[in-house]
UniProtKB/TrEMBL annotation:
Chief location of this protein within or outside the cell: membrane
Location in or out of the cell: Membrane
Pfam families in the cross-refs: MFS_1
GO molecular function terms attached to this record: transmembrane transporter activity
Organism per entry: Parazoarcus communis SWub3 = DSM 12120
Name used for this protein in its record: MFS transporter
Domain of life: Bacteria
Length: 506
């Protein structure tokens, strides 16, 4: 075996481990956490508001320039940040396992937010490390390995975790197990990851001014939060009002004021890495319209999927094990299949036609959840699943899976996987190679807006109008994304044919 082959194998092994580490925490502050909250008896509207713990995924581009600019000692810029974030994630997952959603809700939410922040930070570094480490001829294979490992981790933390929770009757034990798995990834990053090229130095800018600019940006966020909050209070509204719509109004107003104020403060204080990166994107033709498309394209999917676990467990009466097998294990494999099919289709179709076709399929797939809400559990019968033991997960007794549930999950995940392929190809096409890390972080952050911010609205809506009407609403909100694709067809054509894709938060 040649040194070249060994080096290639080492690099791809690193991508495999990092893809897995990147995908593991997402469900632990999303669908798995929703299941824990549901089983512990937290009300549906509150579960919806817990979706906001994923807010850091939408803001990661704000601190991504710092991770580009500064280098932790001894381990190097990329590997150093990876080791720091992964060890911290392992510790926080263990801490979260000691908390109770009912007994200590504030601490529980704080732990979840910190995990999401570190997970988003890890994603920024993983994307940059993969780009820095792999030579051009290995990037296609490396991207495929990353997608596979990322989805495999989501099957573990989002599907198998539900099965473990049902078998062990203990969500804390599940999170402790995930903590040890993340610790193992951190040890591999510390001891086995290859270093990136020494020629890839941090950006050339004044470090003190970068830090001052970052602090000013944070001050803008805090100031915007308090300005919006106090303004609404002056109008006689109460942030602690029992009315969930008023609570949602406070959250949206605080974000709407904080973001522009943060951008203004960063520009005034000279946060150069961020400022130059943002300027290079917004100088492009149609930059704002593309941001609108990025937010809207997956919005219908975000609404339909935001409360899927509570809907299936509490609304439809499925068991945790049945949801774990159907929605998480089988569903995520179907997402991978959808991505593969989407990739094959995109070899023949241009980016515009792929976005349009897959967007329509995503819209239609939401009708399946409406059908399930209307017809109910058992409407199409069930299929028997024999007992199995796959070492990491087992089913002690034979079980049944609902045919309608399986059909709905299949349609939603296959179409969602196809849509993700075209969507990520769009994001990559919009990146300026000079600022790839920060641009990709910014665009993927906007892509996460729907997934994060529809959650509180979803909880309120589902309680107010019922599940069938809620899923019809998810179909309606999917329409603007498809219309935006058609409206921007000429601009999308100009982007050219897509490059090989890498993973994003959907």
């Amino acid at each position: 075996m040649t040194a070249h082959t060994l080096g290639r194998g080492w690099r791809l092994f690193a991508i495999l481990v990092l893809g897995f580490a990147s995908g593991l925490p997402l469900a632990l502050t999303g669908q798995a956490m929703q299941a824990w909250l549901t089983i512990d008896g937290v009300d549906l509207a509150t579960i919806g508001f817990f979706g906001l713990v994923g807010v850091p995924y939408t803001f990661k581009f704000l601190w991504a320039p710092l991770m580009d600019r500064f280098e932790p000692p001894l381990l190097g810029r990329r590997r150093g940040w990876l080791v720091i974030t992964q060890f911290a994630l392992a510790a926080l997952l263990w801490w979260m396992s000691t908390l109770s959603p009912i007994g200590t809700p504030v601490l529980f939410a704080a732990a979840a937010v910190l995990i999401a922040f570190l997970s988003a930070s890890q994603d920024v570094v993983v994307d940059a490390y993969r780009t820095d480490l792999l030579p051009d001829e290995e990037r296609g294979l490396g991207a495929s390995i990353h997608v596979f490992a990322y989805r495999l981790a989501m099957i573990l933390s989002g599907g198998i975790a539900l099965i473990w929770a049902g078998q062990w009757a203990s969500w804390p034990r599940v999170y402790q197990t995930m903590s040890f798995i993340m610790l193992g990834c951190a040890v591999v990053s510390l001891l086995a990851l290859p270093r990136v090229s020494a020629a890839l130095k941090p950006l050339d800018s004044d470090p003190k001014r970068e830090l001052v600019g970052f602090v000013a940006m944070l001050a803008g966020v805090v100031a915007g939060y308090f300005i919006a909050r106090q303004t609404l209070i002056l109008f006689g509204l109460d942030p602690d009002d029992a009315n969930r719509w008023i609570q949602l109004l406070f959250i949206l107003a605080e974000i709407a004021v904080a973001l522009p104020l943060a951008a203004w403060a960063a520009k005034r204080a000279g946060f150069e890495t961020l400022n130059r990166s943002l300027s290079s994107y917004f100088d492009q033709r149609g930059a704002a319209a593309f941001l609108a498309l990025i937010i809207l394209y997956k919005l219908g999917d975000a609404f339909a999927g935001s409360l899927t676990t509570p809907f299936l467990i509490k609304g439809m009466g499925f068991s945790q094990e049945e949801v774990g097998i159907a929605n998480k294990v089988i569903g995520l494999w179907l997402t991978i299949l959808g991505a593969f099919i989407g990739g094959l289709i995109m070899m023949r179709l241009a980016l515009y036609r792929s976005l349009l076709l897959f967007g329509v399929l995503q819209l239609v797939s939401n009708f399946g959840f409406y059908l399930l809400a209307q017809l109910g559990k058992g409407a199409w019968g069930a299929v028997d699943v024999p007992a199995f033991d796959w070492v990491i997960v087992s089913l002690a007794d034979p079980a049944t899976l609902d045919w309608l549930l399986l059909t709905v999950i299949a349609g939603e995940n296959i179409s969602g996987g196809m849509g993700t392929v075209a969507f990520v190809a769009l994001l990559m096409s919009l990146c300026n190679q000079r600022f790839t890390a920060t641009h990709y972080a910014m665009l993927s952050a906007f892509a996460a807006v729907g997934r994060i911010y529809v959650s509180p609205l979803s909880g309120v809506l589902s309680q107010s109008i019922g599940w069938p009407a809620f899923f019809l609403f998810s179909i309606v909100v999917a329409v603007p994304g498809v219309v935006m694709v058609w409206w921007l067809r000429e601009a999308i054509h100009r982007l050219g044919r897509p490059q090989p894709v890498t993973e994003v938060d959907d």
